[in-house]
Amino acid sequence: MELNNPSRCRGEIQSTRRTLGESSPPARSLDLWNSPGETACADQTEEYLKREHSLSKPYQGVGSSSSSLWDLLGNVLVTPQYVRLTPDLQSKQGAVWNRVPCYLRDWELQVHFKIHGQGKKNLNGDGFAIWYTKDRMQHGSVFGSKDNFIGLGVFVDTYPNEEKQHERVFPYISAMVSNGSLIYDHSRDGRPTELGGCTAMVRNLDHDTFLFIRYVKRRLTVMIDIEGKQEWKDCLDVPGVRLPRGYYFGTSAVTGDLSDNHDVISLKLYQLSVERSPAEEAVDKEVFIPSVDNMKLPGGNENFYFISTFFPICCGLTGHFKSLLPLILLSLSPHPDFLLYFPFLVDDHSESMSGFALFLIIFFSILGLVFAGVILLIVYNKWQERSRKHFY
């Protein structure tokens, strides 16, 4: 058992962790929030392992039983030493998904993994992904899971699909946040939608390899320990990432014409108890749709305020529009937290549609409002006429 001092200074996180008979990544103090010149001890963070969201040896909570915390999908093989998402064979895909939705505000996920196979460099594939998404247990084309996902994906891509690499060396780790409207571009290795990334030579190594994902105060940090030196190295650090609570953690992998063994040794999720100032609490509102600050959503324009004013009336007149409104507002909204103003819409599920479909919905909704206004005017005039006759 390893016990680290939980005391912290501002912008630093040190954690209390328990290791269960397996290799552990190093504890690392991270300067996540410091502005220049800040040295005072103010933020204090404690970290606790959440077993209901963690996967580790001997994998007793994995399988189809009613008491299991993790579900298996596809060609997954569970052994006493690892969970193999795919074997080193062509056209395989597998996934492991947590059954319990995560409602933590701040968290840290440590992934112990191994990628190995007989293929030489750039003759192996395709990679694996770590997910925090609204939907779970769905096969798809993005490293074994569905495209147009809603949430966060962190990808370990081991095969370059794009002919011109633009000085990018593979394997490559990247992250993507999607609201369901974005498509992962395989032909360009996800470059158009990635938040950032780094090269990570993770194949066929004799030592342990680790991936670290931290989400604190709407800041997404990914780090790696792949050199066997027991130290974390930066991969990407993105502020202004807005992830809803209540999504699911999972991991998936896929092989195509080329293949690899994709093994997960452990997934350990830690709850981070982060102190916030009153000012930080005031601005840290609940999030309902994944987004990233300064990242414009597809179709965003200034018509949001017009639509947000008139469409709730339409929702009251006909329930059909209620299921369509979240997508319409999402497509038109310049503000990532617009659904805060429409909490009654959060549980509804909307699917992607074309711009023409959106135009038709808006057109007929406005037409319906005009028609309702005309009817009300006619009724009012008749009522006034009857009142005058009754008076005389």
UniProtKB/TrEMBL annotation:
Residues covered by region (Disordered): 1-31
Membrane-spanning ranges: 304-333, 353-380
CDD domains: lectin_VIP36_VIPL
Lineage: superkingdom: Eukaryota
Ranges for domain L-type lectin-like: 47-272
Coiled-coil blocks: none
Keywords: Disulfide bond, Glycoprotein, Golgi apparatus, Lectin, Membrane, Metal-binding, Signal, Transmembrane, Transmembrane helix
Cellular compartments per GO CC: COPII-coated ER to Golgi transport vesicle; endoplasmic reticulum membrane; endoplasmic reticulum-Golgi intermediate compartment; Golgi membrane
A GO biological process held by the record: endoplasmic reticulum to Golgi vesicle-mediated transport
GO molecular function per UniProt: D-mannose binding; metal ion binding
Localization per record: Endomembrane system; Golgi apparatus membrane
Protein topology in the membrane: Single-pass type I membrane protein; Single-pass membrane protein
Database matches in InterPro entries: ConA-like_dom_sf, Intracellular_Lectin-GPT, Lectin_leg, VIP36_lectin
Signal peptide as annotated in the record: none
Biased composition (Polar residues): 1-22
Protein's UniProt name: Lectin, mannose binding 2 like
Species of provenance: Leptobrachium leishanense
Classification lineage: Eukaryota, Metazoa, Chordata, Craniata, Vertebrata
